[in-house]
UniProtKB/TrEMBL annotation:
Keyword Oxidoreductase (UniProt): yes
Keyword terms of this UniProt record: FAD, Flavoprotein, Oxidoreductase
Lineage: Bacteria, Bacillati, Bacillota, Bacilli, Lactobacillales
The keyword Mitochondrion is assigned to this record: no
One GO-annotated biological process of the protein: steroid metabolic process
Organism: Paucilactobacillus vaccinostercus DSM 20634
Names of the cofactor(s): FAD
Domain FAD-dependent oxidoreductase 2 FAD-binding residues, every copy: 5-462
Protein name in the entry: Fumarate reductase (Flavoprotein)
GO terms for MF: steroid dehydrogenase activity, acting on the CH-CH group of donors
PANTHER family noted in UniProt: 3-OXOSTEROID 1-DEHYDROGENASE (PTHR43400:SF10), FUMARATE REDUCTASE (PTHR43400)
Pfam families: FAD_binding_2
Length: 497
């Protein structure tokens, strides 16, 4: 049996933020990581984070104010999110940029990484020397007396009927008890738990491609639920773009197919109908939402004429992820794609992998897609008519994208699936990141952070770049401050204040 002030479950951005905050406040803290490496999605997935009114933004004369960021977030969620929590996270975001730099992880303010956000104020603070920076953060935690336990999983929370009193952990097949006065649960949500995902997903789980943390299996959420925590918001996913994948070969990737997925070509849903302005491909959150709304997948359709064109020529279109990649590499955006000299082989490979379908006629193609031949033919005919006129009267796609009719067989339909970076609906909380019961009363001694905490979002991820990573760091720091205050004042005084 071990004793400490606070146990932090999960060593991603939220957990590290909480743990350092506690250690710097001279609290005894044990940071648990069930994997063999710390960092989580905040290190292995993210490239930076959002902030408003940072010193870098002030130096660049950014026009975005805290009030404007708050209003944008609340309007996006239709005021169905937690306003005090949103205000707390945004208010702390600028300080967190300085805090990260002071602790060894510097950032730089870069242009927004999505094409449609270029006329908006810059908010994305890109990590500099990311992995070394995380090492410096962890060393700072250890230097201040913190204890990191890797390959150590939290199994259950001890509760005496009044407050959390400890955490049962498992390491190397053996369970032990860590007694504590508070716990911060920050182990990343549940995207790595197929059964939980299936339970809370609104679409068929086979159509969801997860890019989230596999170790995030909902352990912390389940432990808090066992104590009566409010789990009403668990069904919120961080929808992000769409992906072409192979069921038979999950590791398969083809650069040509990836590029074509990221263009505003003709998209049709499961009924063979066009369903959206395909220019939405340039806003990853909205693109992800549209795919999810369509049932979790759609097909983009191309013809032989476009394929022949792409063999030898570049198209004056922007790959929707190009700006993200060039920003990271400090390169210029080219605003063209192709040529793809091996596109025939690339498409044949996609068909072989079950990711694409080919038909010499639209009727043949529709049979493979299990959609009405009449419907698909009518959809393509309508789209070609709109392309000829150069004006999308159906969904108002920009005229610059209305240049690629679908007329000459053979035809290809490539399946793009709903993609999620993680779950962003967790335990209900407040601006102190206390874990709440359905009656809004706190579970004493329990705090949540990162993807284990609900309240920042409504039904989807917003279009503000870097906000989920910012939520992780800032919610972790706030949870750490709250737990520190509980230790200093005592449980009774903390909750009566």
């Amino acid at each position: 049996m071990t004793k400490t002030d606070v146990v932090v479950i999960g060593a991603g951005a939220a957990g590290i933020g909480a743990a350092i905050t506690l250690a710097e406040a001279s609290k005894n803290v044990i940071l648990l990581e069930k994997g063999n490496r710390y960092g989580g999605a905040g290190m292995f997935g993210a490239q930076g984070l959002f902030a408003v009114n940072s010193q870098q933004q002030q130096a660049s004369n950014s026009s975005l104010t805290l009030a404007q960021a708050y209003q944008e977030m609340m309007t996006y969620t239709h005021y169905r999110s937690n306003a005090p929590l949103t205000k707390a996270i945004l208010s702390k975001s600028a300080n967190t940029i300085d805090w990260l730099a002071d602790h060894g992880l510097a950032t730089e303010l870069v242009n927004n990484t999505q094409e449609v956000h270029q006329d908006r104020p810059r908010v994305y603070h890109q990590y500099i020397d990311k992995f070394a920076g995380f090492e410096r953060l962890m060393q700072h935690f250890l230097d201040h007396g913190g204890i990191l336990k890797t390959e150590t999983a939290a199994k259950s929370l001890k509760y005496d009927g009044q407050q959390v009193t400890g955490v049962v952990v498992e390491h190397d097949g053996h369970e032990t008890l860590i007694n504590c006065q508070a716990v911060i649960v920050a182990d990343g949500g549940y995207i790595g738990n197929p059964e939980m995902v299936k339970q809370y997903l609104d679409i068929d789980a086979k159509n969801l491609f997860s890019m989230g943390e596999r170790k995030a299996t909902g352990d912390g959420i389940s432990m808090l639920a066992d104590l009566g925590a409010d789990t009403k918001s668990l069904g919120t996913f961080e929808n992000h773009a769409a992906s072409v994948v192979s069921d038979s070969d999950p590791k398969w990737h083809n650069d040509t197919i990836f590029t074509l997925t990221n263009l505003p070509l003709l998209w049709v849903n499961a009924a063979g109908k066009r369903f959206v302005d395909e220019g939405i491909v340039y806003d990853f959150a909205l693109w992800g939402n549209a795919t999810y709304q369509a049932g979790g997948y759609y097909y983009f359709v191309i013809d032989q004429h476009l394929i022949d064109q792409l063999k030898t020529s570049a198209l004056p279109l922007t790959h929707s992820f190009e700006r993200t990649f060039t920003t990271l590499a400090h390169q210029e955006v080219t605003h063209h794609v192709g040529p793809f000299t091996e596109i025939d082989a690339d498409l044949a490979q996609a068909v072989e992998k079950g990711a694409a379908f080919k038909g010499n006629t639209l009727a043949e193609l529709s049979a493979q897609l299990h959609v009405s031949a009449g419907q698909l033919t009518a959809t393509v005919a309508r789209y070609n008519d709109l392309v000829q006129r150069g004006h999308d009267e159906d969904f108002y796609k920009a005229g610059a994208f209305m240049n690629y009719p679908v007329q000459q067989g053979p035809f290809y339909a490539i399946k793009a699936r709903s993609t999620s970076l993680g779950t962003i609906g967790g335990i209900e909380t407040n601006e102190k990141l206390e874990a709440l019961k359905p009656n809004a009363h706190p579970i004493k001694g329990a705090f949540v952070a990162g993807n284990n905490a609900s309240g920042m979002y409504d039904t989807s991820y917003p279009t503000i770049e870097g906000i989920s990573c910012a939520f992780a760091w800032n919610s972790g720091r706030i949870a750490g401050e709250s737990a520190s205050h509980l230790i200093e004042t005592g449980t009774q005084n903390y909750y009566e204040a």
